[in-house]
Structures are given as structure tokens and as C-alpha cells.
Amino acid sequence: MDGAEKGVVGWCRYLFTGLLFPGTADADTRVRSLSLLLVLVLPAALLYPTRGFHLLEPDEGRYAQIPKEMLERGSWVVPTLQGEAYLDKPPLMYWLVALSYRAFGTTPEAARLVPALCVHLTILAVYLLGRRSIGERGAFWAALLLSVAPGFVSVARLLLLDGLLVLCVTTSVLCGFEAVRTGTLKRGWWLLAAVASGLGFLTKGPISEVLLFVPLWAFGFLARGPSAPAVSREGGGRGPARVAWYWYLVFFGVVFAVNLPWYVAIYLREPQFLKYFFWEHNVMRFLQPFDHLQPIWYYAPILIGGLLPGTILLVAYVFNLLRSAPQDGANRSLAGGFWLLTGAWCVLFFSCSGSKLPTYVLPAYPFLCLALGEYVARTRWNVQFRTRALIGGMAAFLLFVHHVGVPWYAKERSPFGDPELVGRFVADHDVAVVCFPRNCDSLAFYHDRSDMRNVRTKSVNQLLVDCHHRPRTVILFTHSDSFTGFKSTLPPSLEIVESATLKRKVKGSLLDKLTGATPWGLCDMAVVVPRYHVPPKDGAELQSFQVPGSKFHGRARASR
User: Fold this and answer.
1) Residues 149, 81: contact at Cβ < 8 Å?
2) pLDDT tens by residue, 242-268
3) Based on the domain organization, do 230 and 305 belong to the same domain?
4) Domain termination site, one of 380, 406, 432
5) 80: helix, coil or strand?
6) 143-147, 407-411, 426-430, 556-560: least confidently modelled range
7) HEC secondary structure over 254-302
8) Range of weakest confidence among 233-237, 350-354, 359-363
9) At what angle do helices 92-104 and 108-128 cross, to 10 degrees?
10) Is residue 1 part of a domain?
11) Dihedrals φ, ψ of 467, to 5°?
12) Claim to verify: residue 370 and residue 496 sit in the same structural domain
């Protein structure tokens, strides 16, 4: 360690720049036509065909229905779900899906085109922008590894917000690192990073800024000092550029310019949005478990399986990091260290969150693949047959899964595999349709029932009262035991005149166990009518009831 820097700071910098990442990046950044062609064709074959399988409940149904209502109502400011304001997330994804509907029709294929394009653009960004920091070969291998990572390409192509968020975060970090990488701030790249970060803010809130600035600041701290190698081949001094405070003001000015028009518009129409979204759906979801409580190591098995075959390379990469031989260290550049640092930060941040879902960690995949791509390109893995065999084998497996497995599985699990049965209950728009105790937004999408209501268990009393007011009410039971519990608590003043179940008989085979007996989001259907043609007098009937499996207790009576 250089004598000019001692103590904890000097040791941390020496560990990062002198031991772990002492090398310089590959100088060859030329785009190769064959590499670009493969990066275009392979993801396209995995992403675009067979997008029309049944919507998966609950998320895909919700994110398909909201843009549909946007078009029907002409309301582009306030997202709605079954006619009520839906304020959980900003609207960028809804806008893009609505535009896809307008261009290609209101279908699952059109809806899933948006996340599929986002995933493909992310892979292209990893190759075209990543080559500037780790060289063309490293970026090519990174794009290939990302293309066949099942936890990324198979999940992010679903109709979720995460595919668009990953595109925004990846582009923002790639451009932000390019802006500071050479030691002199590149203003154009800095502004591009701000635009991408602003679009991420308009997708899912301030998470895009959190995932950008922390690794940039950490890298700026670690990659300085007399022992640091050059980050770039282009000169400009040792270590990344120092960003003056006013350039941060410019950055956030761009972010505000992208977001402020919609945030002002939504506040004027729904004043509760700002507190509800920023406090409850960002701060409190991070600090408290909400409804997705998981252990801190939750993402470890997800990444182990989701990053395959990159997981095998990751193990080899870790062993390579532990070696002190000069030839090993020379293959690890500071740029590769930044991508590993960024991927690790994504995993650490979401692991510390109180609420965890498998999709939250998707932003880590591109950065981990960039680190692994450089490792493959600069070691013997680059020329070994097993590397190509691993990637080719996983690509073939994913082609089968995407073209055959997922459509079959979705059909088996979807309650809309028999559309005529469901349609018989919900076709009459003069009859109220109620989901109990949770949403089934796919039904609203497929059967054009935007007027459908959702009733929670705690509101079952009001549901029973409403059933007395209507000549007929169709109730869709979205939990496996909801119908049984509802029947046992039904007051004598109401009766079920028709019912049907969508549950399958499981015979015990492996496929039956895989698909299960309970469809996604909808298990039973029933038509409820009041027995009395003339409403009873006040207090004529008072029935105690309790919904099994819930904490709700109440008293329902026939309304006047």
C-alpha cells in the first residue's frame, strides 16, 4: 500500500483497486456485426412469440385492465381500476400499454409487447453501452448471459412494471457511469442518465435514483488514490470524475421536468396521492413487512436459479477474486468492479427491504452479467466449449419453456380456460358482479366488466345488505374456501340459485401436482337472490355470522 494513504480509507481503496480490480479494461470496443445480430435474434426468439397466453392473476390482470380503462374513459392522468382511482404506482407503464392497445388491439399479446420490448432494449443496452467500459467481447458475453438468465428473461417479459423499471435503471446507470468513467464529466451522458432516471421515477418512484447514486458514490470513493489504475483507456486522470454540486442540480432538474407535469396533475385531482404513494408505498414498504415478509437471505436462492448458467460462472469468478496471482488480477478491471459493486448493491438494498418479491431484484441481473461477461471474455472460459454449451443449452430450454411450457401451464391454471362457463355468469351487464374476497381483474379484461366490484372480507356485511337490494347478484369467489364459508354464513333471507366451480380434480400425477386444483384468482361462482319479494320490516331478520378463516365477525340483516 502506498504510504501516502493509510488507515481504513487507504486499506479499502487498496483492497478494491490494488488487489481485487487492478487491471484495465479491454481496448477493443468495435461493434461486431455477428455479435449484434445474435443479440438481436436470440432475445427476439425468446421474448416475442407466444405472448397471448392467459393473463396471470393477480398482477397481469390488474396491469392489463388499468390501461384498458384509460382508453375507455379517456383518463390519462388518474389510473383507474373498476372505475376507482388506482394510486399505487405512477402511470408510465399504463401509458405505454394503452398505446400498444390503440395500435394492436386490446389483447394480452399487445399488453405483453411492452415488457418484451423493454427486456430486449435492456439486453441491447448492455451490449451497445456496456462495451464502452468493458470492451466488446465482455459486453457480448454479458448480453448473452442476460438473454438466457431464466430469472430475468422469463419473468421480466410478463406484464409487470419491473421490465420497464429495469430498462430505465440499467440505461441510467450505464449512462451515469459513462459520464464519470474517464475522469472528466461527460455532460451528454450525464443528461441521458438523468432522462432515464426520470422515466424510472415515472415508472415506480425514486428507486431508480437510489440504485444509481449509491454505487456511483461508492465507486468514486473506492477508485481514487495513488494506487488506483486508470478506469478508462481514454485518459483523464486516475479515478472517476468528480461531479460538481451544480451538476447534481441539473440532474434532478431533468428528473423533475420529466415527472412534475403528471405529479402536479394527479395532486390536483387526487390530493391524497403524494402521501399514499411516497410514504405508504415507498418508505413504509421498505421499513415494514407489509404483506411480503421474507428472510434477509430470500434473494440468494432466487439469484442462484435465476442467473443460470451465470451462477456457475459466478462461482468461478469469486474464486478468481480470491487469487492474488498477477495474471489473475490483470483480468479484472475497475469497470468490472463497478458492475459487480452495482449488482451487489441492488441485491443488498432489496434484501434489507421489509417487503420482498422475486421481481424486486431484477435490476441486479444486468450488472451482475456485465461483471461476469468481462470475466468470461478475459479468461479461458472465452474459448471453452462448455461455455457455449451452457448458454446454448439454456437457450434451447427457454425456447421450449416459453413456446410450450408457459402457454400450457397458463391454460391449465387460468379460470378462463373455459370462457363459456364464466361467460354464462357474467354476460348480462344488468346483473351486478362482485369479486369476494379479492380481485379478479382478468375477468374484467376478458369479459368487459369494468363495472365489477371488489369486496373484502371485512366488508362482507355490506355485501349481504347489497344482495338484498338487487334481484340478482353474481359473486365470484377468489379463494379456494371462500364459497364454502360464504354458504355457511348466508342468512335465510338470501339463497343461491345457481353455482359452478372451476376447481379441477387432482388425480395425483406429477402434472396435476404441478398445476394444482385451484385456478388463479377465481375458484367458484354463484348467483345470489333475495327470498323476499317484499322487504321485511325493520328488525324482522337479524342473522349472526362469521366468515370461516377470517377474523371478521358481524351481523347482517335484510335491508329495507
Assistant:
1) no
2) 999 999 999 999 999 999 999 999 999
3) yes
4) 406
5) strand
6) 556-560
7) HHHHHHHHHHHHHHHHCCCHHHHHHHHHHHHHHHCCCCCCCCCCCHHHH
8) 233-237
9) 120
10) no
11) -65, -30
12) no
Question: Torsion-angle region of residue 521: left (phi > 0), alpha (psi -120 to 50) or beta?
Answer: left
Q: Which three cell numbers stand for residue 400?
A: 421450449
In terms of residue numbers, what domain contains 374? 7-406
Overall size of the chain counted in residues: 560
Segment among 1-5, 166-170, 427-431 with least mean pLDDT: 1-5
pLDDT of 225 > 70? The answer is no
Phi-psi map region of 430: left, alpha, beta (phi>0 left; psi -120 to 50 alpha): alpha
Q: Place 47 in a pLDDT band, splitting at 50, 70 and 90.
A: very high
CA-based torsion, 411, 414, 417, 419: positive or negative = negative
Q: Phi-psi region for residue 475, left (φ > 0), alpha (ψ -120 to 50) or beta?
A: beta
392: cell is: 446454448
Cα-trace Rg, the chain: 27
Are 134 and 25 a contacting pair, CB within 8 Å? yes
215 contacts 226 by C-beta, under 8 angstroms: no
Residue pair 164/90 in contact by the 8 Å Cβ criterion: no
Residue type, 439: N
What is each CA distance from 488 to 29, 460, 544, in whole angstroms? 70, 13, 11
